[in-house]
Amino acid sequence: MGGNKKKATWLGAYLIFCDESGFMLTPTVRRTWAPVGRTPLIHHHFANDRISVIAGISVSPTAKRLGLFGMFFWENIAQEHVVVFLHEVLRHLRGQLIVLLDNSNIHKGAPIDDLCRRFPRLCLKYFPPYAPELNPEEGAWGLLKGAMGNGRPDDIQDLAEQLQQEFRGLARSQPKLRGCIQQSGLPFYLS
User: 138-157: per-residue pLDDT in tens?
Assistant: First the structure.
C-alpha cells in the first residue's frame, strides 16, 4: 500500500477505512417473500436524484472500539468533500490517524496533500488497485443498501431521512461493524 511518508511511529494509531457510495431515489430491489403467484411490485416516481455519502469505519488503537463516520452530499463527491470529511474525522479523534482509501483521483491531489501537511498526525495509505474486497467499508454499504432495499422514498428528503436513520443504527452496532471487518479480506488480527 502506497501513501505519504511519515517519520513518526504509528503504533497506537486509529485505523480508518474510507469509501464513497451513492444512494438513489430509484428503489434498490432485493429478494423478498410473497404469496405464490403474487409478485410484489414497487411503484415509484422515476427520478435521478441521489445522495452521495463518504464514510469511514474507525478502529481504535486497542481494536476494542469501532466507530462509523459519514457525511452526506447532494452532489458527486470531489476532493474538496474528502478534505472536509477527513478534517471532521480529525476533529473527533485524538492522536495519530491512518486512513486507508482506494486509488480514486478524488483521494489524491493538492487539497489532500495540503491537509496532510497541516495535520502531521494524518497518514494516508492506499489499497491496491481493484481490491474493494479489502475495504471493510464495502460491508457497511451492503448493510445500508440491504436495509433500505425495496423501499420507496417519496422524495430526496425522505431518502435522506431514511438513510440517516439506518446510518445511525449501523454506527451504534458494534457487532455489525465488527462483521464488516471480519468479512473483508484483511488480516485476521483486525477481526
Answer: 999 999 998 987 677 778 89
Beta bridge partner(s), residue 177: none
Residues listed for the chain: 191
Contact (CB, 8 A) for 181 and 59: yes
Q: Which fold has domain 14-22+47-185?
A: Nucleotidyltransferase; domain 5 (3.30.420)
Position 7 pLDDT exceeds 50? no
* Residue extents of the structural domains in the chain: 14-22+47-185
Instruction: Single out the residue of 188, 177, 97 nearest to residue 142, CA to CA.
Output: 177
CA–CA–CA angle 162, 167, 159 (5° rounding): 20
Place of cell 483521494: 107
Query: Would you say residue 130 has pLDDT above 80?
Result: yes
CA angle 109, 127, 136 (to 5 degrees): 120
Tell me the CA distances in angstroms from 28 to 32, 48, 68, 139, 163, one per residue in order: 12, 13, 23, 16, 13
User: Going by DSSP bridges, is the β-strand pair 122-126/50-59 parallel, antiparallel, or unpaired?
Assistant: unpaired
Whether pLDDT at 21 is above 60? yes
Cα(125)–Cα(73) distance, integer angstroms = 24
Taking all residues of the chain, what is their mean pLDDT, rounded to a whole number?
86
